[in-house]
Specification:
Elements: H1 9-13, E1 17-26, H2 30-41, E2 46-49, E3 66-67, H3 88-99, E4 107-109, E5 112-116, H4 119-133, E6 136-138, E7 142-149, E8 152-160, E9 163-174, H5 180-184, E10 189-191, E11 204-207, H6 211-218, H7 226-233, E12 244-247, E13 254-257, H8 274-298, E14 306-310, E15 320-322, H9 330-334, E16 342-346, E17 350-352, E18 359-361, E19 368-371, E20 383-385, H10 394-400, H11 403-422, H12 432-438
Parallel strand pairs: 1-2, 1-9, 2-6, 9-20
Antiparallel strand pairs: 3-5, 4-5, 7-8, 8-9, 10-15, 11-13, 11-14, 12-13, 16-19, 17-18
The structure holds flavin-adenine dinucleotide (FAD).
Flavin-adenine dinucleotide binds near residues 32, 66 and 175.
């Protein structure tokens, strides 16, 4: 199916204008929250546009559920203590969430740790921060096109219940996850491994779990033990054979990351196509139900569990990535490469969701760094990205896309927007070392 990307120019010119801002942030996921708050706290007028009615992106709407990427990976977490290696906005959000009672203590995930968050508290913390920083927020509003002269971005067209409107900005931070702004501007993007991307997952929560009984069987590690993997391998109706289950802040509640979502015919889906996206949502219903039934029948402590709910929407790990001035390579990740213009560290494994078992390649006792210019498109003026659409090779993205790092990409992009306004420089002309220095 083909779709028309841009609206007619004369239509865009005739639109009434919602306003002019220093910075517009498109998308209110982890990257967008960090970008909007940081830019506003630098003294800029900031508009955040979000198609849903709350912030959090895949972390809340997709119920992805834990903050990954904060801690160092180690050989044996059961003998160690978590060492936090990412701070900045990620730490600020973690701390605020923890104080709200919306975050667990660190939990073992393979060779590292994660902390599971509560979506209601996540929404409140994001709202507090955005309101506190004075960000103008438009929910239930979708960015549907850009207003540009050649490759110079000037503004964008928004679609709301009351109709279309235009809005203008000096700088735009594309935190849509899908690189929607970059794509609409006609700049180069790519998808995964020659178009093959990681599978989506429908997350869900269950309640009334007998937690001591469950933990005695499953163990402290949130990744499925071998005895569960063996059972899953014998079940044709369950497409995923290695799963993660996280106890939440609420008593007797488990967050379940266990489905592999394909088309009904088994094909890999590209959720930027609404036909595939719809099929992902529908196929999810049956995979989640099948896995819930498996838990009840086979996992001690889950016998009397009930199904709380699906995520608001299927969780999307990967769509478009930009063609950036720098690209995070697979070798940079496995080689734990450091950069002088680094904006964040990561010790998170390559967690590649493709095939029956997600591939996890651990980066033990070390980390790699992500260079600033992975956020900057090679061409195109006034736009920078933050979040999971950074310029990255396929496997590298399967590590670099998680929440703690996305918060820091958002902060880096906002610092860059501030500098670019103050020094009247393009994003391409900014010194990555200077951004890295300002992030400290
Ligand atoms: C199933 C699943 C499980 C995961 N588990 C974990 C985990 O346990 N821990 C972890 O740290 N990470 C996890 N992740 C990854 C993490 O959730 C994402 O990497 C992170 O949310 C990406 O943040 P982001 O801000 O780049 O994009 P997103 O979270 O995708 O946010 C993008 C936002 O932009 C909005 N948007 C998009 N297009 C437009 C538009 N045109 N106009 C207006 N708004 C728009 C969307 O509604 C969304 O709110 C998981 C992801 C998935 C899918």
């Amino acid at each position: 199916m083909s779709y028309t990307n841009n609206l007619p120019a004369d239509f865009k010119q005739r639109l009434s204008c919602f306003g002019n801002f220093d910075v517009i942030v498109v998308g209110g996921g982890p990257a967008g929250i960090a970008a909007a708050v940081t830019a506003a706290e630098s003294g800029h007028s900031v508009l955040l546009i979000e198609r849903l009615g709350f912030c959090g992106g895949a972390a809340v709407a997709g119920l992805s559920g834990t903050i990954c990427g904060l801690y160092m990976t180690v050989e044996d977490p059961e003998r160690g203590r978590p060492e936090q290696i990412v701070f900045g906005f990620a730490e600020r959000f973690r701390d605020a969430l923890y104080r709200e009672g919306g975050l667990t203590e660190p939990q073992i995930y393979g060779k590292t740790w994660v902390a599971t968050h509560d979506c209601a508290k996540y929404k409140k913390v994001a709202t507090n921060m955005l309101r506190g920083a004075g960000v103008t927020v438009l929910y239930h509003t979708q960015m549907i096109d850009v207003i540009a002269e050649d490759d110079e971005l000037k503004g964008m067209v928004l679609h709301t219940k009351s109709g279309f409107t235009s809005v203008y900005a000096r700088k735009v931070i594309d935190c849509s996850g899908d690189a929607d702004v970059v794509y609409k501007l006609g700049l180069k993007t790519s998808k995964g491994n020659n178009g093959v991307i990681q599978n989506p997952t429908m997350m869900f929560k269950i309640g009334n779990v007998d937690m001591p009984k469950y933990l005695a069987y499953w163990g402290q590690n949130t990744i499925s033990p071998p005895k569960v993997v063996s059972m899953l391998e014998a079940r044709d109706e369950l497409l995923r054979k290695k799963v993660w289950l996280f106890p939440t802040v609420n008593p007797g509640e488990l967050l379940v990351n266990a489905t592999k979502i394909t088309g009904f015919d088994g094909r890999a889906l590209d959720v930027t196509d609404p036909v595939d996206h719809t099929e992902a949502e529908q196929f999810s219903i049956y995979q989640a139900e099948a896995f819930f039934n498996f838990l009840k029948a086979n996992v001690p402590g889950c016998e009397d569990a009930y199904f709380i709910d699906y995520a608001t929407e299927v969780g999307v790990r990967q769509t478009r990535t930009i063609d950036g001035m720098a690209k995070l390579m697979n070798d940079d990740v496995v080689g734990k490469r450091k950069f002088s213009d680094s904006v964040v560290r990561s010790s998170w494994p390559i967690e590649l969701h493709y095939g029956a078992k997600p591939k996890t390649e651990w980066l033990v006792e070390d980390y790699y760094e992500v260079p600033f210019h992975t956020l900057v498109p090679k061409v195109g003026k006034n736009v920078i990205v933050a979040g999971r659409c950074l310029s990255s090779e396929h496997e590298a993205l399967a590590s670099s896309r998680v929440t703690a790092q996305c918060f820091e990409y958002g902060r880096a992009a906002a610092i860059a927007a501030d500098l670019s306004i103050r020094e009247e420089k393009t994003f391409q002309a900014l010194e990555g070392n200077q951004i890295a220095h300002l992030m400290k």
